[in-house]
Amino acid sequence: MARARSQQLAFGLWAGKLMEPSGLYGALIGTYTQLSYSQKKGVPMQPQAPKDKLWTRAFVLLTIVQTMDLLTFHTITPVIAKFSLLQGAALAASGMAASVFSFAAVFARPTSGLIADRLGRRSVVLVSIAVSAVMQACYAFVPGFAPLLVLRVVHGFFYALFGTAISALAL
User: Fold this and answer.
1) Nearest-angstrom CA–CA distance, 171 and 161
2) How many C-beta atoms lie closer than 10 Å to residue 152's C-beta?
3) Spatial distance between the Cα atoms of 28 and 20, rounded to a whole number of angstroms
4) How much of the chain is in helix, strand and coil states, percent to nearest 5?
């Protein structure tokens, strides 16, 4: 009982110290007061209008373009293994056809920022969109498994360039 009472007293003293003007509560109120009122005039500060808008025409356009690119990527990826089987590949090779795109993209990413900075982000985005569109159309006409692998590597490389350049362009 005595121990519980001493703990209550200790907590009460601690809580009381927090609520004093020199305690935590006072520090918070002082900080709030400094943020809310100008120290020179004692009047509320006017909220600052944001300098740059996020949803600009360029940002919306970049978002739409990247969404369309991701949509085409995610429509090809689930069916590429089955497609490679139809091209005459073995089951293990069809897995390779699915993964070679990602490997090409992973190896291209470290240099894609440098390429985008050297050649210009906008030009890299435009070229990579054009090449990706051609690559996506070529899936319909690929004659066999070996050309499919080459197509996947080239598509993965330009996909990595596009992703890096458009992300940097959005900034």
Assistant:
1) 16
2) 26
3) 11
4) 80, 0, 20
How far is C-alpha 68 from the geometric centre of its chain's CA atoms? 16
Q: Six-digit token pair at 61?
A: 């356009």
Nearest to 65 by CA among 121, 126, 137, 19: 126
Concatenated DSSP letters of 133-151: HHHHHHGGG--SHHHHHHH
Please determine, for residue 11, whether its predicted confidence score (pLDDT) is greater than 80: no
Share of the chain above pLDDT 70, in %: 70
Q: Enter the tokens of residue 113.
A: 């920022």
Q: Determine the pLDDT at residue 32.
A: 43
Yes or no: say if 112 and 161 are a contact pair by the CB < 8 Å rule.
yes
Helix, strand or coil, per DSSP, at residue 78 = helix
Helix (H/G/I), strand (E/B), else coil: 32: helix
Task: Convert the pLDDT of each residue in 79-112 to its tens digit.
Answer: 999 999 988 899 989 999 989 999 999 999 999 9
pLDDT given at position 73? 87
